[in-house]
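Protocol step 4 of 6.
Sequence for Threonine synthase (Hujiaoplasma nucleasis) entered exactly as in the expression construct, tag removed. Do not edit the line below.
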Amino acid sequence: MTYVKGLRCTHCNHFYPFEKDLMICPNCQEKGILDIEYKYKEIKEVMNRDYFKNNLDLSIWRYLPLLPVEEKYTKNSLRVGWTPLYKSFNLQTMIDIKSLYIKDEGLNPTQSLKDRASVIACVKALENNYEIISCSSTGNAASSLAGNAAKLGLKTVIFVPKRAPVGKLTQLLVFGADLIKVNGDYKSTYQLSKAAISHYGWYNRNAAVNPYLVEGKKTVALEIAEQLEFNLTDWVIVSVGDGCTIGGVYKGFYDLIELGLIDRMPKLLGVQSEGCSPFYKAFHEEKEMEESEENTLADSIAVGIPRNPIKGLKAVKNSHGSFEIVSDDEIMDAMLLLAKYEGVFAEPAAAAGLAGLMKSRKKNLIKPSDTATVIITGNGLKDTKNALNVINEPVLLNNDLKDLIDYIERGESNE
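Step 5 output, structure tokens:
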């Protein structure tokens, strides 16, 4: 907490000195999502290239000077962060791009990028003496909150829409969460969680309300920069639902610029599904964001009313990036290509990022001479149902070598 300067409203721009219970702008209410500001001059004195070389903590806590938490509450958390950044060779050639990197967030403790936000939420709940923490989620935020809270001894009450995938529901139930399955879409789920949190006084993990969660998500950008030795790719690509993740990615790179550790902001490409694309429409039509249908199999980005539109749009506009939309078929094609050629199994919402890169490359928005990093936000084991719909059932053979030889010579194997 030493380096937190205060909080600024993204809607009215009013600055507030740090107060532990402040989450939204008192004047603007939920439109007034707050942004954490830091004392960069002071952080520069401790965080430089040598700081990273000598830091053996391979988790998000290696970035403590840039996080709004008290160190003593971080000691017993799950090991979140420091996920691998893979250099692609196969897809890089297929897509026809100069250089491609894949950031695999599916290797976080509960297999998604959302762990970065959830562990921050749990630490903040402990700081403020809460015993119960709650959120609404399409799945990943729910399972990540349940897992991280379990490790730190917090109870969870989690609201999910009825379409949430069974893999994610299984996770959060195993972690001991009190699960409320809402007979409705994400909008209805959020509304009920909001009312319940207000009524019972639980700690609010909803990313569009809680300003500290973006600070956790930004660590994915800090890691990418460090893993690339602070020589960033031209583009960084991520799927978009509420807008919190892409807002966090921008914030991480912004912090590094302020500290003089990088000299430019990469262009950010936000990718949405054709069946739920409020950010894409607002950006390209230059108008206020409107509610969208949630008609896509990519459940993690099926958010018809994004709760963080200002930070999400700001991230793309200020980075001179863009938004792209992809079909569900393009998403599933990208999921299969990523698994087959790079060995990374992504859930549909995560594979949308790669699908967006491929589409933007075909449209020549992203050039052959460009370099790119795709953030894969969640593991494919969270949604095996959709994956099974687009792969072939394995053949059943007798224990007979001749049958096997006949099968292989007919060319019917997966190869």
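Step 6, annotate. Residues 9 and 67 are 18 Å apart (CA to CA).
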